[in-house]
Amino acid sequence: MGYLTFTKSTCKEMLFVAKAVDKKHSKSELRYVYVTEEEVVATDGHRLHVYTPEVSVMEPGYYEIIKQTKTTLQLIKVTSDAYGKLGEYPDFKCMIPEASYIREFITKRNSGEEIEVVGKYAEVIRAFTDNTVDWDYFNDANCLGMYGYRYNGEDSPLVLYGENIKAALSPLK
Q1: pLDDT in tens, 57-113
Q2: Taking Cα atoms as reference points, which of 136, 150, 162 lies closest to residue 46?
């Protein structure tokens, strides 16, 4: 299998997911983009980015980032790391509480259904007074105009969501 190339104009969601990869993480599974039948995922242990494409063009497994810029992402499928193995990917679904939450904050949409930029860091953090997250992680996660934010309490992640993307950001301690 050759390289898979994504650009901002063809699949900005893949660039979003790749922002959560930690290429130097001690746990080898977290150095890659992970693809399931339904989702494309990446986490560095402090943040999680999830993309649910309408149609998957990638087969499930681990993908190494070969090239990553602000506008281009190039991946290749891998079956093992430098030590000849890859373990099981962390259970990422348990990081994003789906059904119940304490607070939710929805940003406004204008008449053209485009998201207005009102969901900025300070406004969201004020809405979630007992949960503060890293600004850079928040900014990376919010790059595609998330319109909803929620959390389940002080020790739970701040969840950001959009049409087909989600992010979970661990609280700062």
Answers
A1: 789 999 999 999 989 999 999 887 777 778 888 888 887 766 555 555 555 444 444
A2: 136
Note the pTM of the prediction, 2 decimals.
0.81
Rounded to 10 degrees, the C-alpha dihedral 22/31/146/152 comes to -90
The rounded distance, in Å, linking the Cα atoms of 168 and 160 is 6
**Distance between CA atoms of 120 and 105, rounded to whole angstroms?**
11
The stretch 144-153 carries a mean pLDDT of 72
SS3 110: coil
Write down the mean pLDDT value for the chain: 78
For residue 60, give both structure tokens. Answer: 């499930």
Residue 141 CA to residue 73 CA, distance in Å, equals 17
Neighbours of 137 (CB within 10 A): 21
Smallest CA-to-CA distance from 68 within 32, 92, 39 is with 32
In this structure, the chain runs to a length of 173
